[in-house]
Amino acid sequence: MPLLINGVMLEDVPPDTRTLFEAYPHFKEVTAALIAQVPKVIGPVGLLYVHQREYAVTSPHDKNITVLGTDDTTTCIMVILKHTGSGAVALGNFDGCGMEQGVANMIRRVQEFSMNTPDGRLELHLVGGFLDSRGYSEDLAVRLIYTFNKQPVSIHLVTACITELNNSLRGNINWPVIYGIGVNVKSGEIFPATFPDKGPDVPLRSTRYFTSCYDMLDVYDYNLGLLRIGPFNYEPMRGVDLWLSQSDEFILQHLSTSPEVQPPHFVLQVRATLKFIQQNPFPGVTVFPDNRPHFFRKDESGAWVQVCY
């Protein structure tokens, strides 16, 4: 079924987001209310952080997780899907890869959590992207709306804080307003946020978008309370030594979709990821022996501790 906006089916996907905002001006008011919130700084206790090309799904009954969050997004779009009856919620960080599979799996997982809930509806919140000079955000936003619109279930598009609605002009450069989003899985509250703690295995998780691992990865097992990374494989990266020898500015300009507006730690994270790839050219041998995932469980301090499972 098509998406619903204000209870009315969206029969045709608008060709661009400006047309969407003109047809549904209330999205500007919803965005203004979200942007008006002071961003929260969320610590590790109760946090499940989702990286680019990842998603996670949980419910209000989760004893380990209170907040799903992601940040450092520029041209990526953060997707929150909630069921108002069960309270089940999914959060994904989309860059355009694995979109069809990621959207379908997020919907399926939320529905699984909500099977025994007779009331409620699926609500969709899209946050992120801006008026980047290459048009990546616009293309991703339209593709996401199109992908959700063709799913076989009714989904209500509630928030579209994307592209021009998430854009601010500083001098002559467009910047995203909201870089990160959190959702409280107990209350359903959605809020701008930053996350100093981005969970375990950060360089490993980041290898996926430098090594042609295109799928969206489901990283959380609610029933076991485990963060699950992998297994996945990649080919040795040609030229990794050459990349690591380049200047910070060169890496910023050539490995970012939006070099003008990246957070200051972007290059440091890229270097750590490239170093990991250099040291682990065959992850099936050194990272995921016997094809075993990495499992982590929250401890009382909020840290993810690796466990054997």
Brief overview, please?
The protein is an alpha+beta fold.
Count of helical segments? 9
Cross-sheet strand order for the largest sheet:
10-9-7-8-5-15
Query: What is the element string, with H for helices and E for strands?
Result: EEHHEEEEEEHEHEEEEEHEEEHHHHEE
**For this entry, what is the oligomeric state of its chains?**
single chain
Protein structure class: alpha+beta
Q: Mind telling me which CATH architecture this is? A: 2-Layer Sandwich
Radius of gyration of CA atoms, rounded to a whole number: 19 Å
For the record, give the distance between the C-alpha atoms at the N and C termini, rounded to a whole number: 40 Å
Q: Per CATH, what is the topology? A: 60s Ribosomal Protein L30, Chain: A
The best one-word shape is globular
The overall pLDDT, averaged over residues, is 95
Q: Main beta sheet, described?
A: 6 strands, mixed
Q: What's the number of extended β-strand segments?
A: 19
Helix content bin = 25-40%
- Sequence stretches where pLDDT stays below 50 over 5 or more residues: none
Number of domains: 1
Strand content: 25-35%
The CATH class label is Alpha Beta
InterPro entries: NTAN1
Protein name: Protein N-terminal asparagine amidohydrolase-like
Pfam families: N_Asn_amidohyd (PF14736)
Organism: Limulus polyphemus
Characterization of the model:
The chain is of the alpha+beta class. It has a single domain, classed as 2-Layer Sandwich (60s Ribosomal Protein L30, Chain: A), CATH 3.30.1330. Helices cover 26% and strands 26% of the residues. The protein has 9 helices and 19 strands. The strands form 5 sheets. Strands 10-9-7-8-5-15 form a 6-stranded mixed β-sheet. A 5-stranded mixed β-sheet has the order 3-14-13-6-4, with no helix packed on it. Strands 16-17-18-19 form a 4-stranded antiparallel β-sheet, with no helix packed on it. A hairpin with a 5-residue loop joins strand 18 and strand 19. Helix 7 packs across helix 8. The longest helix has 15 residues. The protein is globular. The protein starts with a strand and ends with a strand.
